[in-house]
Design brief:
Length: 178
C-alpha cells in the first residue's frame, strides 16, 4: 500500500464529496463558522481580573467545551486552579509557565493539561502573554490557602461573555454558540 504524502487533489474548487447522510448533516449540524479573533467584531476582550482579559471564541454546552484567548497584559498570575477536564493551549505571544513545572511556553508552544492536576499560571514577560485555549470540563479556582473560590465551566464562560456584552451594549454573537 502506498503512503499518502499529500492530499491527492490540487483542484482549487469545491468538490461535491458523496455522503449518504448529507441531508441529516445539513438539517441538524450548526455548521462550520469563522470567528475573527484579531478584531473585536466577533468577540470583545472581557476583563478577567485587574491584569487579564478573555476573548471568548466558542461555547458548546453539549460537551462543556469552551474556547478563548487569555491575555495577561503584563507580568502576573492566574491563581491556582484544578482541572476536571482536558485543556489544550497554544502560546500566541509572550511567555508563560506553571509554578508546578520546569518549562516555559513561548510563541507556538503547545500546552497540554489533563484532569486531576492543579497549577498556578505565571508570566514574567514584560508584555505578558496571549494563550489560545480549547478547554473541556470545569476548572475549580482556589485561593492561596487552598480554599475553594469558584468553578468556571462553559456556563460560567457564557455568563462572563453575555454579562459584559449587555453592560457594554454589545450584541451577543450567536456564532460563538456551537
Amino acid at each position: 500500500m502506498a503512503t499518502m504524502t499529500a492530499p491527492p487533489s490540487d483542484k482549487a474548487e469545491i468538490v461535491d464529496v458523496p455522503y449518504a447522510y448529507r441531508e441529516l448533516v445539513d438539517r441538524t449540524s450548526p455548521g462550520g463558522r469563522y470567528i475573527d479573533a484579531q478584531s473585536d467584531d466577533d468577540s470583545p476582550w472581557v476583563p478577567f481580573g485587574p491584569n487579564a482579559a478573555i476573548k471568548h471564541l466558542a461555547f458548546d454546552v453539549r460537551q462543556n467545551l469552551f474556547s478563548n484567548i487569555l491575555w495577561m497584559k503584563g507580568p502576573g498570575v492566574i491563581g491556582t486552579h484544578f482541572h476536571r477536564g482536558t485543556i489544550t493551549m497554544v502560546c500566541l505571544e509572550g511567555s508563560v509557565r506553571y509554578l508546578e513545572y520546569d518549562w516555559v511556553a513561548s510563541p507556538g508552544g503547545l500546552i497540554l493539561e489533563v484532569p486531576g492536576e492543579s497549577h498556578t499560571l505565571v508570566t514574567e514577560h514584560p508584555e505578558g502573554c496571549k494563550l489560545f485555549g480549547w478547554m473541556q470540563g470545569p476548572i475549580d479556582f482556589y485561593d492561596g490557602d487552598a480554599n475553594f473560590v469558584e468553578t468556571a465551566d462553559v456556563f460560567w464562560m457564557m455568563n462572563h461573555y453575555e454579562t459584559y456584552c449587555k453592560e457594554q451594549g454589545i450584541k451577543i454573537n450567536p456564532k460563538l454558540y456551537v
